[in-house]
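INTERNAL AUDIT FORM
Audit reference: QA-55
Scope: verify that the stored structure record matches its stored sequence.
Auditor: D.O.
Record contents follow.
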Amino acid sequence: MIPSRSALLVGDSWLVAPAGFAPAGPVPELFGLDQETRALIAQFPQFKSILNECPDQQARSEMIHRLEILASADPRSGRPAPEESELVDSLSAVLLLLDDIGTGVRLTSAGYLPPKIAYRFGEVLGLRDFELSTGGESKMLAVMHVREALQQVGLLRKYKGDLLLTKAAKDGQEATPLLWNHLAARLLPSEPTAGTFSHDAALLSLLFAATSDNSFDLTTVAEILTASGWRVNDEPVQSYDVVFQGSWQTILLWYIAPKDQRAWFNGTVSPAAAELARATLLTAKPL
């Protein structure tokens, strides 16, 4: 089946579905909510559209519960920021790749990292022996996807066949807190009101990372997306759809951790990654 783009008229606005996805069913207005809950949603307006699109009460209750947890983690309440040593440890994989890129590296003719750099990056990501390959980035999907996520977050850029550091990356090499602040500012979806699958998947992944007690429950994220009407080729959303069809942020969060905690499709979230997700959502500008 050839993917197609479809649109659903809701009130006076159109929600555009990305290729391969189709929102189904009516989109209810928020109803039956007390004043306290409405104030909570007003504090995190990025989630209002997802709640509007979700008629399933259990899924809505789960989102509201996690927003309550998030609100209680407001840094203005006195929650301590991570120590710089903890930041350096958790961001060491990112920092190593930035150091290896340096003043720029020539990509292969297929657009991949040079094999030696890809292998070294795979090692620092924590790939095991059988997962590592001297055949380059195309043989190590974790390496490729993390590198692409770093481009999405504005630390790397391609130019005429070279991979270069952005100004934010250079600043982050000099001062890790600047790197941390840049990540916190850039993990949100770039089009917060687009009503796309990637927008919803990214926001929910950040919310679950920010409010989970060590676990990173992408299965429940997928269930909420399904309850909100999203389908992949007419099938319910699965956890891998959350990642590969929508949320590069999830990939990055898996590897913002000490080396022994980094893993592909990690079922846990490191304290640093959870804190970064919280910082992202708590400092988001109002729509």
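Auditor finding: record pair retrieved intact. The chain has two domains: 7-74+191-249+256-282, 84-182.
Action required: none
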